[in-house]
């Protein structure tokens, strides 16, 4: 009886934990060329990603791009500022090198749920017009 009780409680608790599944799975996004518009999409599945507000009260995508002057930026998919489960990387690269895109955050939770934090860094290789770094 004790084993059955323990198994039941374990099942209930494990069912209340949210787990982030981020795609694409690998850590590299498609290469880009200087002066050519770039687009990539990152999807976060497993729960409703919490919205974070900046100092102006606007909701921002959950992540950042470095270096800041790369010509690329993060944006909510479909211009929906409440949907943080889908993030777009857009822009026109302005220089060659390696760009790092960090996506991090956590899920909104309901009673008896445990949230899962996520943190993933992608790289984008920016090549010159000739295809070289």
What do you see in this structure?
It contains one helix and ten strands, in the order H-E-E-E-E-E-E-E-E-E-E. 11% of the residues lie in helices and 38% in strands. The radius of gyration is 19 Å and the shape is elongated. The longest helix is centred in the N-terminal third of the chain and has 14 residues, at 2-15. The protein has 133 residues and is mainly β. The chain has one helix at 2-15; strands spanning 21-23, 32-33, 38-45, 52-53, 59-60, 63-66, 72-76, 86-91, 97-105, 118-127.
Overall spatial form = elongated
Share in helix: 10-25%
End-to-end separation in angstroms reads 66 Å
- SSE-based structural type: mainly beta
Q: What is the CATH topology assignment? A: Immunoglobulin-like
H/I helix tally: 1
The CATH top-level class label: Mainly Beta
Low-confidence stretches: 6-15
Largest sheet: 4 strands, antiparallel
Strand content: 35-45%
Averaged pLDDT: 79
What is the number of E strands?
10
Rg of Cα set:
19 Å
CATH architecture: Sandwich
- The order of strands across the largest sheet is 1-3-8-7
Number of domains: 1
Order of helices and strands: HEEEEEEEEEE
Q: Assign the CATH superfamily.
A: Immunoglobulins
């Amino acid at each position: 009886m004790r084993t059955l009780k323990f198994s039941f409680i374990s099942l209930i608790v494990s069912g209340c934990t949210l787990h982030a599944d981020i795609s694409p799975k690998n850590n590299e996004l498609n290469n880009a060329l200087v002066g050519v518009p770039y687009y990539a999409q990152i999807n976060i599945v497993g729960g409703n990603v919490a919205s974070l507000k900046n100092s102006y009260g606007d909701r921002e995508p959950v992540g950042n791009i470095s270096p800041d002057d790369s010509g690329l930026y993060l944006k909510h998919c479909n211009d929906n500022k409440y949907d943080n489960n889908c993030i777009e990387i857009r822009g026109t690269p302005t220089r060659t090198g390696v760009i790092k895109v960090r996506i991090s955050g956590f899920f909104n939770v309901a009673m008896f749920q445990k949230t899962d934090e996520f943190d993933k860094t992608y790289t984008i290789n920016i090549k010159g017009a000739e295809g070289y770094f």
